[in-house]
């Protein structure tokens, strides 16, 4: 079985200019907790405003959540956003 699996990942989000947008993804895995991040149009968002939490479900299984916030969204924020997770040599 895979070390990582997405339980929630954003699909289509529509917003009005000036509103805050929050994108959330949730990953379940076994072994070590993941490293998580976001990208837009295939490029890493190095300084993204994101919150992350990891919750152990058992001794070897965890649930990790990452939420990306885009305050006062502008037209320049448009694009394809994706969450990624990496753990145990596997990346999704």
From TrEMBL:
GO molecular function, one term: kinase activity
Domain Ig-like positions: 2-92
GO cellular component: a single term: axon
Biological process, per Gene Ontology: homophilic cell adhesion via plasma membrane adhesion molecules; synapse organization
Signal peptide: none
Keyword presence, Transferase: yes
SMART domains to which the protein is assigned, alphabetical: IGc2 (SM00408)
InterPro entries: Cell_Adh-Cytoskel_Orgn, Ig-like_dom, Ig-like_dom_sf, Ig-like_fold, Ig_sub2
Transmembrane stretches, start-end: none
Entries under SUPFAM superfamilies matching the protein: Immunoglobulin
Protein name: UFO kinase
